[in-house]
Design a protein that fits this description.
Layout lengths: L32 E10 L7 E8 L7 E3 H8 L5 E4 L5 E6 L2 E6 L4 E4 L2 H5 L20 E3 L6 E2 L5 E4 L8 E3 L2 E5 H9 L7 E3 L4 E3 L21 H6 L12 H18 L3 H4 L4 H7 L3 H4 L4 H16 L5 E4 L6 H14 L2 H17 L12 H11 L6 H4 L9 H13 L19 H16 L7 E6 L2 E6 L25 H13 L6 E5 L8 H11 L4 E8 L4 E9 L18 E6 L6 H11 L4 E4 L7 E7 L5 E14 L2 E4 L8 E2 L4 H4 L3 H9 L2
Parallel strand pairs: 1-14, 17-18, 18-21, 21-22, 22-26
Antiparallel strand pairs: 1-2, 3-12, 4-5, 5-6, 6-7, 7-10, 8-20, 9-20, 11-12, 13-14, 15-24, 16-17, 19-20, 19-24, 23-24, 24-25
Length: 676
């Protein structure tokens, strides 16, 4: 479930376990500043920029230290106050009458209530609540039911435990940039900046929009912004500086220790220990950019292992050839498929010329050049294979060539690439993809992605994603119809009930989530409002960072009369059923959970797939970008015990052996329900 979008405001102007690394100052020891410069901060464009001063520190080559005062002032649009003790060794940043204390001597950050410090963006039920202000279209904070939360426990961060430090310089409190971004920007979705050795770039859209996921994605294209980002100082490094590798590793452990929502289930006390136990610490500390990036993929797709955990950008800022050269070739060849076919043909031709890839031979540039000429292939293809001045093919290409050689049947055989393979490496993600594939195999070709059907006394509402258009407020003067079904779940349900109300014989309403993988929280609350007898909606979750329970109440104006009153909602007017499958994930798991615990609907079909945590976007110090299961775990607190919605839904009427014959068979389901 996606609870918030990345902020573009940055934004207005612009724990346990010692890490066994060297080069980090001991507790209380001040690091020495050796120089500084004004670094540029680019937000989605190259023609305008802001500045953030970067400080060089002795013994930490490449690590950008910045002023906490300057960074937080920019991040919070000036709404933060700093003060220090007389000795200038303890600083306090204050917002909303809550402080974060920075103890330079002890290397610790302390906050008693992170949500309260972070504060509210607009009119929310609670500070940092589930819904963003822009999602309050036809929705409002409930006036009938008060939202509540239990007392927060706050947190302490010991930077020494992560091999990290802070220091002072000319009255400024200096910390490594990723520490500040990971601690303070993640909750607002403002963690968008990546450092390329010279400057900071917002890579949340201008880069990710063209390089989504793995390096063989069909959407990869050249663009000036990405070229500038990948052409910084780090692009000249032959390997990752060891001090930078330690910094990146420490800040990654800090990030996950703070915000990863499934620590308790996996028995994780610290990610440093977890990475070491699972054999990934060495790779994450590697100074080889390719090995480092491969380890990052393993973290997200093997260790995290859920449908909420995914990689958007796997290119390291140190592995610049991976982007620039690949983009050049794919742009020239007109897409990923023709590029792959050309690489296959080339590898076969070079193999025929005597280069034995399976025995580890690499071949010479001249051999590849001659093969290109014989095949009449654009020689720009060679820039993908030869990426530096070594004169040798790069490691990743040789691994690909070996794979081509292993499965080669004929010279014209093509390798079929499945973009999901990267994710299908662990039990839970594999289960989810198999469930998706099975449901898709049952879906009729002409079924569509959203629809409303009425069969006898039963209405069916089918949709494949919980969607918000951001324009739901326009429904007050442009009533929703079938044209908005895919863009707005609120619009879909409004129009569906308009049709249902015109059919007096309808007694039952089935909400079909069998092929729905989730979506946005605002769409979830909207749909719950239609199931509610009075438009009132209650979402509740456990906040793993603050260690407190939050119960939020909203109201949905389901009849679009501009009044948030008891005339909203259809609960009690129809018998509601929610149809789920093993693929019903995230919001498609939360809807049946909250509907069932609230007595709003019966669940039919099969056990939904899970997905209890609100998704948290993040990036690391290398510019890898991904999503993870975040710190808000949906569920209910009963008699002091919290139950996650992960696998808590109990199917009231299982399909059993009839499942394959009933999914997408609405006439069959209507007859089946008539017997219940």
């Amino acid at each position: 479930m996606y609870g918030k979008e990345r902020s573009k405001k940055w934004i207005c102007s612009l724990l346990t376990g010692w890490l066994l690394v060297t080069g980090t100052p001991t507790m209380g020891e001040a690091v020495e500043v050796t120089g500084s410069y004004d670094s540029r901060v680019y937000i989605s464009r190259l023609d305008k920029y802001n500045t953030l001063r970067v400080y060089h520190v002795e013994g930490e080559y490449g690590v950008p230290y910045v002023s906490a005062q300057e960074y937080l002032y920019l991040l919070y649009d000036g709404h933060v106050a700093f003060q220090s003790d007389e000795g200038g060794r303890v600083f306090t940043a204050s917002r909303n009458h809550v402080g974060v204390e920075f103890d330079v001597e002890k290397g610790k950050l302390t906050c008693k209530d992170w949500d309260a410090f972070f504060g509210s963006y607009g009119d929310r039920a609670l500070p940092n609540g589930i819904l963003l202000p822009q999602e309050f279209n036809a929705q409002a904070v409930s006036r009938k039911n008060p939202s509540r939360e239990t007392a927060a426990k706050g947190f302490d961060i010991d930077l020494q435990a992560y091999g990290l430090s802070m220091t002072t310089h000319e009255g400024k409190l200096l910390l490594p940039f990723a520490v500040l971004q990971n601690v303070f920007a993640v909750p607002s979705g403002a963690n968008i900046l990546s450092f390329n050795g010279d400057h900071f770039y917002d890579i949340s859209q201008p880069v990710i929009g063209y390089i989504y996921g793995h390096s063989l994605n069909p959407y990869i294209k050249q663009n000036p912004y990405a070229n500038a980002y990948y052409s910084g100082k780090f692009s000249k490094e032959k390997e990752i500086p060891p001090a930078y590798a330690r910094y990146a590793y420490g800040t990654t452990c800090l990030l996950f220790d703070l915000y990863y929502g499934h620590k308790a289930e996996k028995g994780i006390e610290s990610f440093d220990q977890y990475f070491e136990q699972n054999g990934l610490k060495e790779g994450l500390l590697s100074t080889d950019a390719r090995d480092n990036s491969d380890a990052f993929l393993d973290v997200v797709y093997k260790l995290f292992d859920s449908g909420h955990d995914s990689v958007q950008l796997s290119h390291s800022v140190f592995d610049t050839g991976s982007y620039i050269n690949t983009a050049k070739v794919i742009t020239a060849y007109g897409g990923i498929e023709p590029t792959i076919k050309a690489l296959q043909k080339l590898s076969y031709k070079v193999a025929d010329k005597g280069v034995n890839f399976l025995n580890g031979e690499t071949g010479t540039y001249e051999q590849y050049q001659a093969a290109c000429k014989e095949l009449q292939l654009d020689p720009i293809l060679l820039t993908y294979i030869f990426r530096d001045d070594s004169g040798k093919p790069f490691k990743y290409w040789l691994e690909q060539a070996q794979e081509y050689a292993k499965i080669r049947g004929t010279k014209e055989e093509n390798i079929e690439l499945d973009p999901r393979v990267e994710r299908m490496q662990s039990k839970d993600t594999d289960r989810l993809f198999k469930a998706k594939s099975h449901i898709e195999s049952l879906k009729p070709d002409d079924f569509g992605s959203s629809r409303v059907d009425i069969i006898d006394d039963t209405a069916f509402i089918y949709f494949e994603r919980f969607s918000e258009s951001g324009k739901e407020d326009s429904f007050y003067y442009r009533m929703p119809d079938e044209t908005v079904y895919d863009a707005s779940s609120f619009g879909l349900f409004y129009d569906a009930f308009a049709k249902i109300q015109q059919s007096p014989k309808v007694k039952k309403v089935v909400i079909d989530l069998s092929n729905n993988g989730g979506g946005h929280a605002g769409a979830l609350t909207a749909i719950l409002g239609f199931l509610s007898p009075d438009g009132e909606v209650n979402l509740s979750y456990f906040h793993t960072l603050n260690q407190n329970y939050c119960s939020e109440w909203y109201h949905v104006d389901t009849n679009l009369d501009g009044k948030f009153d008891d005339h909203d909602g259809f609960g009690g007017q129809y018998d509601f059923y929610i149809l789920t499958s093993g693929f019903s994930y995230s919001c498609a798991n939360a809807l049946p959970f909250f509907a069932q615990t609230g007595g709003l609907a019966k669940i039919i079909g099969e056990q939904p797939g899970g997905g209890d945590c609100v998704v948290t976007p993040f990036l690391d110090a290398y510019g890898h970008v991904a999503n993870m299961s975040g710190w808000k775990k949906l569920g209910r607190m009963t008699e002091g015990k919290f139950t996650s919605d992960e696998h808590s839904v109990k199917v009231d009427y299982p399909f059993g052996d009839q499942a394959d014959n009933l999914y997408f068979n609405y006439k069959g389901i209507a007859e089946w329900l008539s017997q219940k």
